[in-house]
Amino acid sequence: MTERPVVLIADDNDDVAMLLKSYLRPLDCDFITARDGDEALALAQSRLPELVLLDVMMPKRSGWEVCQALKGVQRTACIAVVLVTGRGEVKDRLTGLQVGADDYLVKPFNRDEVVKRCKALLDRNHAKTTEAATPGRGALENLLIDRATGLPTVAMQLDRVKEMLIEQGEIGIVFIDIEQYESIEAEYGWAFFDEFLRRVAEVVTAETKKRFQNASIAAHRVAGSSFFVFFQTRGVDHALESTANELRETLVTALRQQFPKMSQEQIGFFVGATRVEYRPQIRLERQVYFGMQVAADAVRDAEVQRKKQLTRELRDIIRRKRITTLFQPITRAKDGTVFGYEVLTRGPAHSSFRNSDMLFSFAREAKLAWALEAIALEVALKRLREVDLLDRKFLINLEAEMFSQSEFRIHEVSAYFAEHRGHFVLELTERAAIEDYAVFRKVLDEFRGKDIEVAIDDAGSGYASLEAIAALAPDYLKVTKSLVSTLAAEPIKQDLVKMLVELAGKIGAKTIAEGIETVEEYETCRELGIDLMQGYYIAHPQEQLRSGDAEVARSLSGQYAAVR
């Protein structure tokens, strides 16, 4: 490979390829070209360029297909890919994001923008190459390390485990799975959960070294929530199940001590264990993976029993109305003042359903969503009657399918909202498809006639949301937290947020970015023109409402106050 970076330009239009070459000459690159998708994929696999510019609509294979093929293989996954197209709609950019593209350029091109974006990707690629050259860590190893925990994944440990099995004739495998990983991440945010994962890995590593000789610890997969421990069983007298249970108890005790402010019921682990005896007539990989499956199946059985217990617990919560209404501040991006609150529902403090996302997602799974939604709305309205609304907005979450339930007392709710005109926003989630937008919009028009506004939740999460935006003309677009997460570092996400901001401007709506957890996400949202913000970086949900903006502002996080 030459010292100059190699750039592959794949486009069946020679004029476009020449134009891109001329734009990028100041970057001092070597260029190779392809005129169809098959040729582009073959060249990328053989030459391993630092950067590939792919026309989306090419003969033989589309740019989307080539991108997905490159990103799906370790050898080519690190190649920076820019999709080049005349189709710049939100749904097209979402497709680009889903197939793993690093950036997106829309025809006609702006020279400065093309150079800026391609240079940023080449610089990033160079930085990764330099890091991979560090002694002890190659490029392949970087792909097989779970960054949250620092642990190797199973694929990286496999050769060592096979050697252990051959040498010892038998190995033990313990599978460890974080019990409520989804609710922990949903309640505390991904940054906190990454730290939680890191601490779990530290405890697993320390305890494994104490208990077993020459053990190997592996993350189940990159960015996962489970771990495998492989160890010698020769000389181990204890039953593996007892050993696994001891390890689980140690983990629970250690993590509860390290995270005392978390709900202690959220900190739990499933464990499963098995022995694998060496059988020379069977391929080694199959023996190891079969053992892993047996250990994981033991955990699955425990999870089934856990779900039955959770269903009983949730039925009791609904029957006894054991839920709490919380208020999460939403602030104005331009000056940080309080715009209003999202009204959230949380289960009992010392239960498995303390987290809102866990509560409602499990209710849908257990076919108890309607019963929970009705109780949540009843309790929320009771709580709202007790507070001074002042001039603030209150966003009430409702599943779109709730409006089709004949038992849902929508007119009673509407009457209460009408008594407090201008204060309430219905935040619609669309987890079930709206079958008839015309009929549904008539229902919403009844609310709008009483100054009740409408927000679409998770805008930008998929084409269904875009259809809802076009059909329902909401007053607010809530930018999904999956777009906000790592927004500062991902150009495609930035473009998508820009387009949502522009779309909101065209329909007279305001944008709300949710799930802001870092200063980088906060600053980027402001730069992209977001109107309103919420997230743990700004403030956590609270049980009590203060009397005015100044007092609420003083209650917000110190980090947020610092950036203001």
What does this structure look like?
With 564 residues, the protein is an alpha/beta fold. The protein folds into three domains: 6-139, Response regulator (Rossmann fold, 3-Layer(aba) Sandwich); 144-313, 2-Layer Sandwich (Alpha-Beta Plaits), CATH 3.30.70; 321-563, EAL domain (TIM Barrel). Helices cover 48% and strands 18% of the residues. The chain has helices at residues 14-24, 37-47, 63-71, 90-98, 111-132, 139-143, 154-168, 181-188, 190-211, 240-258, 284-320, 356-365, 369-384, 410-419, 437-448, 463-472, 481-484, 491-507, 519-527, 549-555, 558-563; strands spanning 6-10, 30-34, 51-55, 80-85, 103-106, 170-178, 216-219, 226-232, 269-277, 324-332, 338-346, 393-399, 424-429, 453-459, 476-479, 510-513, 532-533. The strands form three sheets. Strands 10-11-12-13-14-15-16-17 form an eight-stranded mixed β-barrel, surrounded by five helices. It has a five-stranded parallel β-sheet with strand order 2-1-3-4-5, sandwiched between helices. A four-stranded antiparallel β-sheet has the order 7-8-6-9, sandwiched between helices. Strand 4, helix 4 and strand 5 form a beta-alpha-beta unit. Helix 2 (37-47) packs parallel to helix 3 (63-71) and helix 9 (190-211) crosses helix 10. The longest helix has 37 residues, at 284-320. The protein starts with 5 loop residues before the first strand and ends with a helix. Residues 132-139, 548-555 and 557-564 have low confidence and may be disordered.
